[in-house]
Amino acid sequence: MNSSISIVLAFLVSAACGIYAAPAVAQAQAQAQKITVMTASSMSPAIGEISKIFQRETGIDAIVVPASSSALARQIIEGAPADVFISANADWMNRLDDKGLIIPGTRKTIASNSLVLAAPTTLKDPVRLDALKATLKGRPLIVGDPDHVPLGRYTREALQSMGVWRTLGEQTARAANARTALAQVERGGTVGILYRSDALSSPLVRIIATLPADSHKPIAYLAGVVRAPGAHDGADARRFLAFLSSPAASRVFAAHGFLPAATSTDKQTAAATAAKTATASGSWALSALEVEALTLSLKVAFWAVLISLPLAILVAWVLARRIFPGKTLLNAIVHLPLILPPVVVGYLLLVSLSTQGWLGAWLHDTLSITIAFTWKGAAVASGVMAFPLMVRTIRLAIEAIPAGLEQAARTLGAHPGRVFATITLPLAIPGILSGVVLAFARSLGEFGATITFVSNIPGQTRTIPLALYSLIQQPGGESAAARLVVLSIILAIAALIASEILARKISHRLEG
Fold first, then answer.
1. How far lies 432's CA from each of 260, 338, 372, 389, in Å?
2. pLDDT tens digits, residue range 434-474?
């Protein structure tokens, strides 16, 4: 009897242990069968396809995380749990290597690429590489941002070698990464310099010419196994790294337009030029580029508010004082920019207001007005994003005005327009002012819709948020980024204080 009880108890204990241990074992196995591959955006389609083949052959799930090489390197430095890093820029691979974040002996070149001049298939005007500025006819040239995007650095080197960078510098629309540059060429109605692999991947793009190979450094894609907090022991990552040199992976690379890897895996010399900015000294004096970004931000925010204010007052008054079918729908549409991701708003603006969009094409062909990739487009994007804040604040101010005052004026024979101008508007001024300040501050901080709609063009669309984004992506940009952060905080505090002072003065005047 006792032996039977002992057997039963032993069985129950072992079963319980199995129940509790099974999830832990399964979790450990699941963790061991997954790796994170952070890859340069230009290589993400090929790496995504290779990861599927790798998963079928090994059972290891390689999760692909695409972005610009600089952004990924920054994240790895800050402790992002990456297992494999694939970079289009040797500078950032060198930086991780110097910090001991790449396991020795794992770094190698896996593919190469070339630069091409590409145009959307819908573009009718002929564009020539040997007469680029003349044949652009005032349109921007889409390039990667040379301050932190490898595509941009190679492009700058090539155009400098060809002697046209100085004349085209202010005419370039700078994309946040290589895939964004491709998307902007597809939909922007203008030409751009892309990786050959990206241009071949899109049916909406045609290649005009290939830039000379000797005009820029070899475009090499480097891969290495990451030694970072949260990464695994490296065994699965090493298997993936080895698989990148397999015949199956080579076929995928070739199908996506990549060229064979160079034989050398030595460190390349870091590109001198723009990555080492004049701001690296740590001085708190603003550089010319930072002053330019500040001036442009104030200009864009001013026009965004000025353009939005009349319509915001009208819409706020209608929502506050009128009852009509569809009022709820109108209110929802007005507040959509508060809910939608800013990138969605920017994309909608791009497809409608670019020279290939239905409204943008009409404005360009009929009135010779170009909005996309200009400071005017930045003002439109900021105005759209700030519009709901302005409308909501003004609406609350109008609703706070006793309706009896307006009714009494109408009873005495005042025209509705006169009632609005002499009673409603003056009493709503404090709320209007608050709405203006909120919209101005929101416009100063606008990023997502702006970079999607008008790119990141120095002197044209690079406002403070975009300049800050560029600086934190490049080595040595920390000091300049800190200055812009402090400047942004000062501007926000100054705007709020000024708003409070003016609101009090106006309120006292109205009460008097």
1. 62, 19, 29, 11
2. 899 989 999 999 999 998 888 777 778 889 998 888 777 66
